[in-house]
Specification:
single chain; 584 residues; alpha+beta; 6-stranded antiparallel β-sheet; elongated; Aromatic-AA_hydroxylase_C
């Protein structure tokens, strides 16, 4: 995909399984109505957020070169983002949480390039360029926050999901698409909402991914910073929502100190949030993140970590105390005294060390699974990995010897040693056998006729995490969403309205226009009586050029407020933006 877009050295580092989500921005597809929506939200936000947002936001707008007047061209924006060590890519709506976080780990900002419809100008449940470009991008100009975001991605993409997490992602993605699209029957939206509600109430025990996604939501998306009495906004969801950025500052939204407890607080992406968390500073975010990471199988390993991978039914990795990493679909663990004594994978499996696949141990070498004992040998205090060459020889553990290795957990390995593989510290991490039988009591786990047996060496599982150790060990370019974002339908009426918006935009920018300002107003008032944003734009220009037209536009807007009470505050805000600019 990168050959179709303007790349840079940061994007060039992305592995293929992340590149599969990237799409061209197609800037020419933004209509003049889209541009007007961007301009209104940005003007309103900058005016309001200058009072309530963290100082990094307005500074970041300048640093990242995001214009109030135009939807940003993402790959032009990349030239500026690169100066702060980041890049941006366009995607189609929501992508899986693990992929989203892995992009962050590579210092890449994921931007849903669609933009909300005028009807959803205050808030959209679907990610869009206002949310991503105007919300996330400016705040990452703060170095401390940017490092938190990168580190969050690095840890978050290793979080283990449950088997239902992906189903929930697909359901939320589908619902957000329907809610943002035009002309979708209410019963379709209700059915999609019902599915989300059902899944939310039947997820079972929250997975690591679910919990760290909660932390992401309450910080990166909906975070407040400062004191409980006087918080400032830094979360992108609030920075990009002219409705919620105002709502969140009222007493109707409960303010809580940000702690690890936020990991257990679920959220509903389709509704305003009833409570928000306040961090005293950006450093505290990293402190809580590390506190949570200490609870993850990534750092605790053990039997529980292996079991999490089995329950996830997804590709994952365990790392043993020698550093050898086993990546695959974990299918079974035999345990004893609360510890794993034998692990098994099914299907393609790869062995790695320090995230690099071991030569001769890729998924093509282990296409039907892998199994290995874990732990110390029975009656010997010294673990195999801690044995010196002299110790190994004393216990007949060297090439060409027939050995019977009895492990404390009851696993027995009986065969002829072919060779061993050592890590950089000289520790044995892998032993290969021929004519080998592996047993556990009366159960045969490996037979000689199955070929060479490779035994991973390690006295304990020190880490378990989602995904492969080496991203190049598996074909990960398999993502197919069940739904795609729905483009607005073009009708003669919509095309005429877009032409009117374009004319007004051209007049503002000193270009040739299809209609005069007065003619555009007459047409919008007669043929598009529900539209309000164009009349605001006409009023803005008319106060400087044609006082009589300005009066007509203001009267029309006043009438519209009465006829459309649900959006009267948006109209009033638009008028106020114009009037305050006059005063200043």
């Amino acid at each position: 995909m990168l050959n179709k877009i303007q790349s840079n050295e940061i994007l060039d580092r992305l592995p293929a399984h992340l590149q599969q989500y990237i799409k061209p921005q197609n800037y020419e597809e933004y209509s003049s109505i889209n541009q007007a929506v961007w301009r209104y939200v940005m003007r309103k936000n900058v005016s309001y957020l200058s009072k309530v947002a963290h100082s990094s936001y307005l500074e970041g707008l300048k640093k990242t070169g995001i214009s109030i007047e135009h939807i940003p061209n993402m790959y032009g924006m990349n030239r500026i983002l690169q100066e702060i060590g980041w890049a941006a890519v366009a995607v189609d709506g929501f992508i899986p949480p693990a992929a989203f976080m892995e992009f962050q780990a590579y210092n890449v900002l994921v931007i849903a390039s669609d933009i909300r419809q005028l009807e959803n100008i205050e808030y959209t449940p679907a990610p869009d360029i206002i949310h991503e470009g105007a919300g996330h991008a400016p705040i990452i100009a703060n170095p401390e926050y940017a490092e938190y975001l990168r580190r969050f991605g690095e840890i978050g993409c290793k979080a283990i999901s449950s088997s239902r997490d992906y189903e929930m992602y697909e359901a939320i993605r589908h619902l957000s698409i329907l809610k943002e699209a035009e002309g979708i029957p209410e019963e379709d939206i209700a059915a999609a909402q019902q599915k989300v509600d059902y899944l939310q109430n039947n997820m079972g025990k929250a997975s690591e991914m679910a919990k760290i996604r909660n932390l992401h939501w309450w910080t990166v998306e909906y975070g407040l910073i400062g004191s409980l009495e006087n918080p400032k906004i830094y979360g992108a969801g609030l920075l990009s929502s002219i409705g919620e950025s105002t709502w969140c500052m009222t007493d109707k939204v409960k303010k809580l100190p940000y702690t690890i407890a936020a990991a257990d607080q679920e959220f509903d992406i389709t509704k305003p949030q009833p409570q928000l968390y306040v961090t005293p500073d950006f450093a505290h975010l990293s402190q809580v993140l590390e506190e949570f990471a200490n609870t993850m199988a990534l750092r605790t390993g053990g039997l529980q970590g292996v079991q999490k991978l089995i329950d996830s039914k997804n590709l994952g990795t365990i790392e043993l105390s020698t550093g050898i990493q086993i990546s695959g679909d974990f299918s079974e663990v035999i345990s004893g005294e609360g510890k794993p004594v034998y692990i098994s994978t099914s299907g393609k499996t790869a062995l790695s060390y320090k995230e690099k696949e071991l030569v001769g141990h890729g998924s093509e070498n282990h296409p039907e699974g892998f199994g290995s004992p874990i732990g110390k040998l029975k009656g010997i205090n010294l673990a195999i990995e801690d044995m010196s060459p002299r110790d190994l020889k004393a216990y007949d553990i060297y090439e060409g010897k027939n050995v019977k290795l009895e492990f404390e957990g009851g696993i027995v390995v009986n065969g002829e040693i072919i060779t061993g593989t050592r890590n950089l510290q000289g520790k044995i991490i892998l032993i290969s056998f021929r004519n080998c039988t592996v047993s556990y009591g009366d159960r045969i786990l490996f037979k000689p006729e199955w070929g060479k047996y490779d035994m991973a060496v390690g006295k304990e599982v020190v880490s378990a995490f989602a995904g492969p150790a080496d991203v190049y060990s598996f074909d990960l370019i398999t993502h197919k969403t069940s739904s795609t974002t729905i483009k607005s339908a073009k009708s003669p009426e919509k095309e005429e309205l877009e032409n009117l918006y374009e004319s007004v935009r051209n007049i503002r920018e000193g270009k040739n226009a299809m209609f005069s300002l007065s003619a555009a107003f007459d047409i919008v008032k007669k043929d598009h009586p529900k539209d309000w944003l164009l009349s605001v734009e006409i009023y803005e220009l008319a106060v400087y050029q044609d006082r009589k037209l300005a009066k007509k536009a203001l009267d029309h807007l006043t009438d519209l407020k009465k006829r459309r009470p649900k959006i009267s505050h948006l109209i009033e805000d638009g008028i106020e933006l114009v009037d305050s600019a006059l005063v200043s």
